[in-house]
Specification:
alpha+beta; two-stranded antiparallel sheet; globular
Length: 157
């Protein structure tokens, strides 16, 4: 598909980047997968400005990626915690794809700092593409990008 043959603004990648396309947002999601749920847990690990962390958490709640609930530790005021929703847990594939690319191209000489394993058998996980018939696709040249049902008409030249 030639880029001139469709309306570029009608793009799921661009829409996704409006939500996830910022470093701190992806790192908050990473920490959520590691089990962080509280503002101070995120802040302690990420060391990002508090106002920025707060803004990103609000965005992730508004987008339905995290859900906010109240908790209270004995002797303390009520606070909020943030947990991944089903929509948020779907991001695991994306996060693992980022991690695998980074492991191949940006890891320390000693190797990757984290290895994802299948909980049931202990074998290492690999993000793969498979068509609806079950064929594993490994090469970008084996992927055809064609207009989908939501494609807009071609932009006149």
């Amino acid at each position: 598909m030639e880029r001139t043959n469709y309306e570029a603004s009608n793009c799921s990648i661009a829409r996704t980047l409006q939500v996830l396309g910022e470093k701190w947002t992806l790192l908050i999601i990473r920490e959520s997968f590691y089990g962080a749920t509280r503002f101070e847990q995120f802040h302690r690990v990420l060391q990002c400005p508090r106002n920025l962390l707060s803004e990103r958490l609000v965005l992730l709640v508004e987008e339905g990626i995290l859900e906010r609930s109240q908790y209270r530790e004995p002797g303390s005021r009520a606070r909020m915690e943030y947990r991944l929703t089903d929509k948020g847990r779907e991001l695991m594939h994306i996060m693992l794809a980022f991690m695998q690319w980074g492991d191949r191209h940006k890891a320390d000489p000693e190797g990757p700092p984290v290895v994802a394993r299948h909980a049931a058998c202990g074998r290492e996980l690999h993000v793969t593409f498979a068509c609806s018939k079950g064929h594993i696709v490994t090469e970008p040249d084996d992927i055809d990008l064609v207009p989908g049902p939501g494609a807009l008409p071609p932009v006149p030249a």
